[in-house]
Specification:
By secondary structure, the chain is α/β, with parallel strands linked by helices. It contains 7 helices and 10 strands. It is globular. Bound molecules: 2-amino-2-deoxy-6-O-phosphono-alpha-D-glucopyranose. 2-amino-2-deoxy-6-O-phosphono-alpha-D-glucopyranose (GLP) binds at residues 35-39, 66-67, 132, 134, 140-141, 161.
C-alpha cells in the first residue's frame, strides 16, 4: 500500500483534501464519502476553503455518510451527523438531495440500512472514500472480527470504541451500537484514502502497515485492494 507521510496535520489535511478535489474535478457528480470523528476535521476545513476560493465545485457531488452512533442525532454534540454538518455540510451550498446519511435516531435500524443500501445501489460505487482509523483498527464502525461480506449493518460496538467515544461528547453517553457502511461497500470504492494523525495513532498505523491483513484489525484489510493509500503525518508514522 502506498504511504504518504506529511510533516504535520495541516499539510496532511491539504494532501487528503487535494485527493478529494482531484476526484471531483475528474467526475463532478462523484460519490464522496468522508468519515466523521476528529481526524478529517482539517480536511473539511480545507475543502470548504477550496470551495470558497473557487478551486472546486461541489454543486453536482453526492455525499454519503460512513457511520453513526445509534440513538444519537444532530442535536447531540459529538454525533457523526452533528460533526459532519457543523464542520462541512452547513458551510457548503448543498441541496438536501446531495446528502445521504444514516439517521441514528431511527426506530427501525434494519430499514435504515436497507434505505442506505438502496441509495448505494443507485449512486455507487463510491468514487472516493476518506477513512479514519479507530484505536482498535476499526474503519467506519467495522469493528474487529467483522465480515468482509457486510453492506450496511448494525454493529455492537467494541469495548475500545465505547471507551474512546467519551472524547466526542460533552455529557456522558451510553453508546452500545452503531450503524455503518460495510467492508464490501467500502473496499469496492474506486479510491480509498486511509488517514491518521498524531502519536496516539502510531501503534495502530504500524499494525495496519506491518500486520498481515486480518478481520481482527479491519484497517489491515485495505491492503488487499490496490486502490487504497495511507496518508499520515510524521507523528502517526513515528512507529513505522
Ligand atoms: C470513530 C468513527 C470512525 C472514525 C474513527 C476514528 O469512532 N466512527 O468513522 O474514522 O472512529 O475516529 P477519530 O478520527 O476521532 O480518531
Amino acid at each position: 500500500m502506498k504511504t504518504y507521510i506529511s510533516p504535520n496535520y495541516p499539510q496532511l489535511c491539504q494532501a487528503v483534501a487535494q485527493n478529494v478535489i482531484d476526484c471531483v474535478k475528474t467526475k463532478p457528480d462523484a460519490l464522496i464519502c468522508i468519515a466523521g470523528g476528529d481526524t478529517p476535521l482539517g480536511v473539511f476545513a480545507a475543502l470548504v476553503d477550496a470551495q470558497k476560493q473557487g478551486h472546486v465545485d461541489f454543486s453536482r457531488t453526492q455525499f454519503l455518510g460512513i457511520d453513526e452512533w445509534l440513538g444519537l442525532g444532530k442535536a447531540d454534540k459529538g454525533s457523526c451527523r452533528e460533526m459532519v454538518w457543523h464542520h462541512f455540510f452547513d458551510k457548503l451550498p448543498l441541496r438536501d438531495e446531495q446528502i445521504c446519511f444514516f439517521d441514528g435516531l431511527t426506530s427501525d435500524p434494519k430499514a435504515e440500512c436497507q434505505r442506505v443500501d438502496r441509495y448505494i445501489d443507485r449512486h455507487g460505487p463510491i468514487d472516493c472514500v476518506v477513512l479514519g482509523i479507530g484505536m482498535n483498527g476499526h474503519i467506519g464502525f467495522n469493528e474487529p472480527g467483522v465480515s468482509l461480506e457486510n453492506t450496511c449493518h448494525v454493529v455492537d460496538l467494541d469495548a475500545v470504541t465505547q471507551a474512546v467515544s467519551v472524547k466526542y461528547f460533552d455529557t456522558p453517553r451510553e453508546v452500545k451500537q452503531g450503524i455503518s457502511l460495510g467492508l464490501k461497500t467500502l473496499l469496492a470504492a474506486k479510491n480509498i484514502v486511509v488517514m491518521a494523525s498524531g502519536e496516539k495513532k502510531s501503534a495502530i498505523v504500524a499494525q495496519t502497515v506491518n500486520h498481515p491483513a486480518t478481520v481482527d484489525i479491519p484497517s489491515t484489510l485495505v491492503k488487499t485492494v490496490p486502490q487504497a493509500a495511507l496518508y499520515v503525518d510524521n507523528a502517526a508514522a513515528s512507529a513505522l
